[in-house]
Amino acid sequence: MTSEQGHSPVVVVTGANGLVGARVSDALVRRGATVRAVVRRPGTAPRLDGLEERVGDFGDAHFAAQVVAGADAVVTTVHPMGSDLQTQHRVGVEDTSRLVRAARDAGVDRVVHLSTCAVYGQPDDSSDIDEDFPLVGDDADVYPLTKRDTDAAVCAVDGITRVLVRPPAILGAGDTSVWNTLRPQQVRDHEQDRHDIARKTFRWVHVEDLAALVADLATARIPAAEDVAHGPVAGGCTAVNVAGEPATIGDYLGTVARALGVEPVWEDGPAWTGQIRTDRARGWGWSPKVPLADALGELEQCVRALA
Q1: CA-to-CA distance for 150 and 73, rounded, in angstroms?
Q2: Is 3 helix (H, G, I), strand (E, B) or coil?
Q3: Containing domain of residue 123, as a range?
Q4: Which of 63, 189, 262, 302 is 20 to 30 A off residue 223, Cα-Cα?
Q5: What's the domain count of the chain?
Q6: Residue 181 within a domain
Q7: What is the mean pLDDT of each run of 10 residues along the chain (307 residues)?
Q8: Is the pTM of this model over 0.90?
């Protein structure tokens, strides 16, 4: 599957026109892969050499079988955050697992699924979160609940190597970026969104670092292994956390508020001050390249454009 073996991998990417999907597609092309970019609307996939736009609904069994035929890997990035429970369950749990089954049946080597650190329960103290941390319960909000259930559905599809990549807040410029665009708009427009606890941990990763890990997994630059410490388990379902250097809500909200010219309101109260542990990803050879200062500088530029 790797270029060292003289083979240019073919990778299917769902949601290739989104913030993460577009960056993953670019990272894959730069690694010599051919990308089948799955989008719902014609002409919305990134314009990249080595990228083929495929228009359709990956939840449709016939389209799913067509788009994965002859592929080496599949990357799933689509989840309709903000929609109702029924929609998130249908697209996340049902459609994603249908695509994974199609990939397995087509002989695809591995699936890299974009999960989230939101699937972990929230600790009340300074405990760190690793891949064995307890998951949210059935009383969780719709997004973490359906992401948890999507992970479980992906893991239930045997016969193919599956990797669950779990990022926290994803920083990076883009019109659809939750943390660089949408959340700052809320802070701009609503005074109540300027309230938080400054010392509370802000869990983040830059989209470029996230895309690099996903692309290395999809092209098997990170090969499968028998021991999870050295790579995703061959034929198994392996979760891996990805996060940047330590930061606080004070770093994030302070930057947003300063760029908008508004005052944050710092409150007292209990706050989680632990970290997302990335020992597993680092053991696979990944490490973040974008420092916090650069990510916050980019964030400030994005927010100033909104002011």
Answers
A1: 18
A2: helix
A3: 3-168+205-243+275-288
A4: 63
A5: 1
A6: no
A7: 65 97 98 97 95 97 98 97 95 97 98 98 89 97 98 98 98 96 97 97 98 98 96 98 98 98 96 96 98 98 94
A8: yes
